[in-house]
Amino acid sequence: MMLAIWILFSGLLYSATPQEVAEKAKLEQLMRDMHVPAVSVAVLQNGKIAWAHAWGATPDTLFQAASISKPVAALAALHFSQYGNFTLDEDVNGKLKSWKVPENEFTREKKVTLRGILSHSAGITVHGFPGYATDAPIPSVVQILNGEKPANTAAIRVDVKPGSLYRYSGGGYTVMQQLLIDRLGKPFPEIMDMIVLRKLGMTNSTYEQPLPTEKASRAAIAHGSEGKPITGKWHVYPEMAAAGLWTTPTDLARFAIEVREAWLGRSNKVIEQGTARQMLTRQVGSHGLGPSITGSGNALTFGHGGSNAGFRCGFSMVLSTGHGAVVMTNGDRGGRVAQQVILSIAELDGWPTGWDK
Q1: 324-329 β-sheet, strand order
Q2: Is the model's pLDDT at 9 over the cut of 50?
Q3: Domains in the chain, start-ordered, CATH in brackets?
Q4: φ, ψ dihedrals at 250, nearest 5°
Q5: Using one digit for the tens of pLDDT, what is the confidence trace for 176-194?
């Protein structure tokens, strides 16, 4: 640690090695205790990928990103908002075709907007989704929105005044998914591949649900809290914008790098600087337009956590320095592992972090 401090103060960049991170986090013992078979990590330094390493997998193994699907999907929505497909503050019902947000007493004064959806302040219900067994019937997005079988969650509705509070809502992101489908007339995975994944070089990522056979051979198997594989290997998430991304830490690192580069005005592959500034500004509560935001000043950090059946993950990046990390695991108790690894990297490499789901 003294060497790290000396190098930082001498103006050189220090990055802890995978072995140092594993020792600091007591990773092997933690993985055993939490019944997590695999952990995959990408470390960011000065806005670049310093290294990627995996324990019990390879750096190219695919994991479910769970709720980290949301900020990546938000990038596509923000892209289209720049070009007049819809605006951040208009009533989304004006552009929805296949389904409309049901009007009620809560939507009389204020309507559901994309800004509200992306910042979890639209008053929309349904926190998250349990997914579907690989051999179960899969509902359409409209069936999910209406809570109609074979959907396994309640109807997605507005039950508080939009803009009145922060409340995490996967349901809101499912509304956004339908908005993009209706507006562009294309399947959601195709939209995401065209607008975000290909442009950022996220070649190991897809929103396709179920996961195509050619990619399934490279995917980590989900494990329950006692370390047993989930029946069917993993769950299927037709709620793609909220929970459906399959990816790697390296690809998620590319996403984080691009958001920061846009924020700095050095890239516009997907969004312009002004849009990136809005994306990383707190709205209602701790969220920006997609990512969660912690800290302030030089310690301002953006990130997100994720929790699907048998998968836990998280990423965090400091805006001022471009330091950060992405951690993905394939166990129901992997949240503690991911958090401990990120905190260990932050301490070793000398950057502040928060942890916000």
Answers
A1: 48-55, 39-45, 324-329, 311-318, 301-308, 292-294
A2: no
A3: 18-349 (3.40.710.10)
A4: -65, -40
A5: 999 999 999 999 999 999 9
